[in-house]
Amino acid sequence: MKLAEESFLTDDFLRQLINVGEVDILVGLPTHNNAKTIGSIVHTIQSGILRGFPRERAVIINADGGSRDGTPELVTGVSIDDMRPASNLFALRTLHSISTRYASSPVSEVAFRTILAAAELLRAKACVIMSPESANIEPEWLSKFLSPIYRDGFDLVTPTYSRHKFEGLLITNLLYPMTRALYGLRIREAYSSEFGFSGRLGTQFLGQNVWNDGTEGDGVELRFTLAAITGKFRVCQSFLGERDHIERRAADLVPALRQTVGALFTALEPDFPVWSVVNGSEPAPTTGADQQVLLDPLRVNRKRLREMFLTGVAELESVFQSILSLSTLAELQQIARLPEDEFHYPAELWVRTVYEFAASYQKSVISRDHIIQALAPLFRGRAYTFLVENRNASAADVENNIEGLCLAFERLKPYLLQMWKSRE
Amino acid sequence: MREMIISELMQALHELARAFAHFLPRLIVMLILVFVGWVIAAVIRGLLRSILRLIKFDKLSQNAGASQLLTKAALPSATEMLSRFAFWVAWLGFILLGVSVLGIMGLQEQVARFFIFLPRLFVAMFIMFFGLLAASFFSRAALLAAVNANVPSPRLLSLALRSVIIVFVLSIAFEELGLAEQTMLVAFGIGFGALMLGLAIAFGMGGRDLARRFLEKRFVRGKKDENEDELSPL
């Protein structure tokens, strides 16, 4: 067994891994104070393994970020025997559960690195990261993530979900269109807390990635997806159904921007040789539906979004002068003067805004974190327009609007390249 | 009588000539020092200018807000200013060194004082530059945080923070220079105290409703407004 990561992993954890030996399947479970839900999630994972992979050697690796509610004990304490009478499932192999505390506070990057290191040491063929906050996790999810890797030779499986048309606006209005336009692959959820990957990809990422112990930013999940695309690994999507996380109070916008847009902008610099030569985009192979849009009525305070956009444009003028071109800033100030019923943040202007932010980020015209924070009020303005445009839209209309935005990102890619080169 | 006058006059002339002969080499040394100093100072200026351009000092200065101040005062760029400053400090150092060679009583003490003062001047400038940089960074951070948290008057908040940092940095720089230490200390104490008191009164009296709403929003879950955070951005 290779002990390349022995200085990073604790001795106790290494001992536990040695006791397990080699495995076929590894389920990574990063946790932090998830005692309320972790028991049922581990049961579901065990059930999924027994149903889909009864003959394979499997292990659950819990990387805990300093839980104080006994989460690690719950993970290791859940017995597979508890579910056998009810489900009539039997494992032909021992299903191990190991827990390690990687730090006293949660850092997703360190948790992921711990899981990758364990996967490499155990020579796992297929791995899956499961979110401890998934409220509606099903045993079938394991097969949906692992089968394309274990049986069809894919290296990365990202999820697609049924989402409300107004949920995940940062993904639909920025992350998906921009990654698609730049990297040429239509991955709906490039940033996800649940995904499957091959041992080959995990080892590659573990060796090549510059690990900074989480001190320089987040978004390791997105970096992993981008690394798979740029490394020419086989990537596909798997439809999971409705996404319903327990922590529904969504992450605040600025941390979400840091984790996603910050990670994407950071990746653009080393990935320039790859994305600069990509033209257009191709669909990623998908099992199940590509994406489902839910249309349930939802009360949203649109007025506040617009107000925060107006405040941002007015108050951050000096910051925007460092980031945006004069014409883009002038257009933003112009739409900020429009009355509420005429307010419209056009897709093309939004794309130019994002590209100018990306180029300024690369050049570090001001602190990079400040650039990301400055994008928040503008995103709110775009979100307002998206909400208004799709207020009465059908699922097909919403998809068409998103597709139109994606095409705008692809069409204006030369603008980004031009700025990128001129700023060099 | 006439011979005595001529003799005294001749003696005075001889002494003057002797003194001048004694002084002339020193004067020549001083002139050489001034010339060599000018050459060295010019080399320093050129080198510093190249280094500063290489490390993009103007950009750093722009971020610190120093460039804007220079532009408003119709002064050259930060790189040029610093290069010229280094030139004059170096040349002045050589001039004073030359003056001290002349051996004029009283001047030597002043020259020694100048050389003792020089490191403090550099430290003060260093403090000022990085102080301005910090003021610019933190005021922008406060502005962005306030805008994203929907706090009223974000620019005022940012400006207040910037002013406090600049006043603080100025007081440290003046203390380092040893100029008007007591005045600066008292002025800083009064200014800072007044600002804090003003903020406390403004927030306590004028912003009672605002404070109540802020605290309710922050700590009372039931009162949480319907807002965009209910829509997950991810």
Give me the secondary-structure topology.
The complex is a heterodimer of chains A (about 425) and B (about 230).
Chain A: H1 11-20, E1 25-31, H2 35-52, E2 58-64, H3 71-77, H4 84-87, E3 95-101, H5 108-121, E4 126-129, H6 140-150, E5 156-164, H7 169-183, E6 185-186, E7 195-198, H8 199-208, H9 220-230, E8 235-242, H10 253-268, H11 272-275, E9 282-283, E10 286-287, E11 292-294, H12 302-315, H13 317-323, H14 326-336, H15 347-363, H16 368-389, H17 395-411, H18 413-423
Parallel strand pairs in A: 1-2, 1-4, 2-3, 5-8, 5-11, 6-9, 8-10
Antiparallel strand pairs in A: 4-7, 5-7
Chain B: H1 2-54, H2 57-64, H3 66-72, H4 78-101, H5 107-148, H6 154-177, H7 181-206, H8 208-219
Tell me the domain tally of chain A.
2
Calculate the mean pLDDT score of chain A and round it. Answer: 88
Roughly what is the average pLDDT of chain B, rounded to an integer?
Answer: 81
C-alpha Rg of chain B (nearest Å): 30 Å
CATH class label of the largest domain in chain A: Alpha Beta
Distance between the termini of chain B: 113 Å
Low-confidence stretches of chain B are 223-229
Total strand segments of chain A = 11
